[in-house]
Write the structure tokens for this entry.
Amino acid sequence: MKTSLPLIRLCAVTASLPSSSQCMADLAEHFGELEVKRIVHSTGIEAIRVAGDLTTGDLCFAAAQHLLTFTETDPAGVDAVVVVTQTPDDLMPGVAVQLQHRLGLSKDVVAFDINYGCSGYIYGLYQAAMLIRAGGCHRVLLCTGDVISKLLNSSDRHVRMVFGDAASASLVEAGEDRFDFVIRSDGSGRTHLNTPLRYARDSTGSGRLGHLHMHGAEIMRFALDGVPALISELLDFCDRQKSDIPLFALHQANGFMLNYLRKSMGIDKSAMPIDVRSVGNTGPSSIPLLLSRRAQSSSQPTREGVLCGFGVGLSLAAARVDLLRTCCIPPVDVFPDAASR
Amino acid sequence: MSNDVLIQQLASLLEVTSDSLSPGTSLSTLDTWDSLAKISLLTVVHEHYGITLEADDLDKIDTPAELTDLIQNRRSAAACR
């Protein structure tokens, strides 16, 4: 699918991170010092943030509140809230409708979740833009959030040393900018990156969640084959050259994969930031978290960016987004006492 | 890339000396022949041969000789397309 959606603006982006950290070096006891060093050297991930008792709803609430406060946005002016998550607080209802209440949004809002991972931010932008273009909404709050650490098998070092918890909040409004999208799906890779859900009724409940499972080599193969081709198609579609784009914000999977993709696409280091060292792979939040954390070190506005997510589904999604008037706000830490449960 | 260079690259990502890898060395006897090594190998082959090996195939091979055969077969298949 390819489309351009004009008269849209990404007004603001921020993120939230649980304050608790897990240092990879501390896992040496568990997995062996050499193995930990080897994995850290490859992934570039030295620590991740861990939600503990905080839920996806808590992290999204913190990011959204931070965004609304910083941008002095009246919650009553938000027409829709969309949450992208794979770890909802409840199987039903969704996190978005919880946020309507916690943020004090109008009961007139549209509120729903999208179940997606690493390509989820692009899906969220697409959905937010469509809500506005369809005419019913003027201002959409888009959140992403996962507490993926809760799904990990503690003895599976290849996922435990990669995935971290985070959330983000973005404000999308009717405006003068444009988003261009290319999205692809391949359900044949469903089991390469998944968390199985098995319905089974007994006295304690109606089912069980499995651990998150990732077949790393399959995902790498998918990314090598898919990401450069997708970005190339997007650039052709919106009539841009690679050298026109000042920022390629790719899903922050791990340092090894991103460095290889960057080299194979011939993109300059300065145009394709990698920011995984202290936060790891934060799934659907990794792209907005990257934009938010860049604001800590750079106040220079960026004209436009190519955002690209890839992973669970399997799914590939890329967007070219005007960013000149986008306010990127550094992330907020969320402390354990913010847990709602 | 010659087979010798491929063996050197394989040895490097397995963190062993290239002398210790012969065409018939069983990779499964090495602790470092794990998903991390297979991911690295995918990129080495992608970079030098322009082909993406199937992840399943990497799970099936057990020696450097099988790896070079696999690459040869994939390249022939790609050339015929």
Remarks:
- Chain B touches chain A through 18 residues (CB under 8 Å).
